[in-house]
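Loading example: each entry is read as two labelled lines plus one structure line.
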Amino acid sequence: MGNTAGKAYGLTLLCPIKADVGGYSYGDIIRDRLEGLMLNHNSPMAKVPNTYLCRLYVLDDVFYEGYPAKEEHLKSRYLVFCTNFYGSLETYLQEMWNKIEKDVRFLWEHCIAFDRVQNAKEFVAYIKKCQVKNTLFFNGSTDEPLAEQLKSLYLKQEFSRFVFNNHGKTAGELQRAFREFVAITQPDNLAGPSWTPGMIEESPHHNYENHLQTAR
Amino acid sequence: MSNIAGKSYAMNVITPIKWYMAWLNRLIFWAAQLPLFKSKLTGLITLSLIHYARWAIVRPAAFPRLDPSQPRETIKYHYMFFFSNFNGSWAQYVDSFHMAIPSGLNLFWERNVKYPGSVPLQPFHSYITYNQIWTNHYYNAYPLAASNDVKAAKTLKAALLDFIAKTQNATPEDFKKQYEALLNNTQSCISLMEPTPIVSLSAQAVQDRLSAAGRKGQLGEAA
């Protein structure tokens, strides 16, 4: 129950980072690499199928809450990976390895025991050792495959345009316009026009009106 | 470093909790998921600005230790990790919880070390700020959409497919009648999504960096 909400999965990882050596901080190197990653549709995570939202950060230590709390410190730093995705854990991780192995190696290179990971199966096993169980996972959104979510968002956007632009038309004009809209947007075809993972703005080809001329 | 990806904000909060209180908290979280107590989560659902959120209470021995050379953790407290993906600014989110579901917040955090309570606001703000960790990389599959957009899109798509099936052989007049009924039923789902407004200095900094990178790329292409 803690890791899933419907078909959505919430994976939480604490991956221990190698101890600092002679002033050489692996935690700082990982943080630097994370902050240098491209963002949005250029993020490596945009290539991992069915990722809804995810984050990574380096946990250096825990916080001291002040007297009378006890002051204590972690012995290791951790790379924290928190991802929300559709489907099963094994499938997701295998896809992650298959799609962005190079990026995974780049980010996890300085984590303890990651040097033993050589393939997708070993990556899945490694990740499971780093997984901590959620006490509660709350899904305030939907739990559909990402392609379904993106297609729905595309349709919402384009149908809203259609409604605004066809206000006041006669019944015949409206029906003809709607048939053109359906032909262009292909509502029941996930492989047809849609949004792409991580896109931060629409390009002209998303706007169905730009395809009207071709459709006619 | 950015806690923002499009319309989403990534919040990470880590707070200590005594071991015996941690077990009580686990019991409360477990009970909150049972149908009988599901109403305790109603507040979260009502605050429809959340995509996904989670709590993980980690006991000292559960911090992963993957090699004998890795020192064993000697901490005594258990630690509650909270992760949230929400729409809007930090202040909007924290204040929404404080205003809408103060008792729900207290239910989940009350047993944490030196938790000040969700009311009054200022100590609560300070507590969250002090225990928050910044995200180093944040990815969002739909930066243009809020959580409400995702949910509305699902509703609208289902209604649209149903409408298409029902009106395939309709006369123009009947088509228009059913079209107007469709709009009436789905009006709350119809709106245009736009890129997020800049809500913080860090978001502005990211935007500036991207714009600068874009200009550099264009210059490179021109050359």
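Chain A has a mean pLDDT of 96.
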